[in-house]
UniProtKB/TrEMBL annotation:
Residue ranges of every copy of the Radical SAM core domain listed in the record: 54-223
KW Transmembrane (keyword) present: no
Name of the protein this chain belongs to: Radical SAM domain protein
Key words, A-Z: Iron, Iron-sulfur, Metal-binding, S-adenosyl-L-methionine
Recorded superkingdom: Bacteria
Cofactors named for this entry: [4Fe-4S] cluster
Species for this entry: Thermoanaerobacterium thermosaccharolyticum (strain ATCC 7956 / DSM 571 / NCIMB 9385 / NCA 3814 / NCTC 13789 / WDCM 00135 / 2032) (Clostridium thermosaccharolyticum)
Pfam families reported in the protein's UniProt record: Radical_SAM
SUPFAM superfamilies, A to Z: Radical SAM enzymes
Lineage of source species: Bacteria, Bacillati, Bacillota, Clostridia, Thermoanaerobacterales
Binding site for [4Fe-4S] cluster: C59, C63, C66
Length: 297
């Protein structure tokens, strides 16, 4: 078996993933939990027919409030080859997907890259969306240059203390901001088609956490100061204490209307212009997909 020493992400585990797992808990083989037309992404991503979303198993963060914990930390999913993943992309395009939306792809970058190349050679024509937590190594992202059309990174935490406490992610802000600058370098300002569907560009997502408005403000300020005003920001107010969040008293509540309103006001106050707001209507468990291997076989 060919050795596959892995330093793909900032964990830099340096393990041979052909036989061993690192922090993310996955061997090098791609593992997926669902592939379907997702209607609840930002309107310019989901459009009218849905985003062809592929959920990957495993994650390099350990968020205590993860809504997808069944696959991110629970190991649910099946192994597929790069060829099979390319077929899944083709099937999603045939079903009418506006794009291929890779959810938590980071830990499988080399094999996903192979799948994208195979699918493009087979005629895949819709944009590829890279939907990640942004805890990335810039060098790994560079290997995707020219293959990704739209980046959809989170920018979760400003302080290291919070990132370590809730996601076990030291230096999160440092890694994520460098990753976002690299993503922007690759795709540039947003481009939309005549129907308002994004063809190229980046949307930065930020989930407002209860009691952490100061971090939200620092994050918005960083975006304003480091990226052009054309960049889109998705400010999400639907935080819900999923998974282990109830073990943290301060996280065990939804955000208040006051926090939500203040975050939106601040967004405009500091001169940000383009964005989406996702309010608490999208917080319900019914918006979390069933991870049932749909679209894999
Ligand atoms: S992708 Fe997984 S094994 Fe590789 S460095 Fe990151 S956490 Fe470690």
């Amino acid at each position: 078996m060919v050795s596959q020493i892995c330093n793909i992400c900032p964990r830099n585990c340096n393990v041979d993933r052909s036989t061993k797992i690192g922090f993310c808990g996955m061997l090098s083989e791609i593992k997926v939990a669902k592939a379907y037309l997702h209607e609840w992404e930002e309107p310019c991503i989901s459009g009218t027919r849905g985003s062809g979303t592929v959920f990957f198993t495993g994650c390099n963060l350990k968020c205590v409030f993860c809504q997808n914990y069944k696959i991110s930390q629970g190991n649910f999913g099946v192994s597929v080859s790069s060829e099979k993943l390319a077929d899944i992309f083709m099937n999603l395009e045939k079903s009418g997907a506006h794009n291929i939306n890779l959810v938590s792809p980071t830990i499988f970058i080399p094999k996903i890259k192979e799948a994208i190349i195979i699918a493009r050679n087979n005629g895949l024509s819709i944009p590829i969306v890279y939907n990640s937590n942004a805890y990335e190594n810039v060098e790994s992202l560079k290997t995707l240059d020219g293959l990704i059309d739209i980046y959809l990174p989170d920018l979760k935490y400003y302080s290291d203390e919070t990132a370590i406490k809730y996601s076990k992610a030291p230096h999160y802000f440092e890694y994520a901001t460098k990753a976002i600058l690299e993503m922007y370098r690759q795709v540039g300002n947003p481009v939309f088609d005549n129907d308002g569907i994004m063809k190229k560009g980046m949307i930065i997502r930020h989930l407002i956490l209860p009691g952490k408005l100061d971090e939200t403000k620092e994050i918005l300020k960083w975006i304003r100061d480091n990226l052009p005003k054309e960049i889109y920001v998705s400010l999400m107010g639907q935080y819900t204490p999923f998974y282990n969040a109830n073990k943290y008293q301060e996280l065990n509540r939804r955000i208040s209307n006051k926090e939500y309103k203040e975050a939106i006001e601040y967004f405009f106050e500091i001169g940000l212009e383009n964005g989406f707001v996702q309010d608490d209507e999208s917080a319900s468990e019914s918006f979390i997909p069933d991870f049932d291997l749909e679209g894999i076989f």
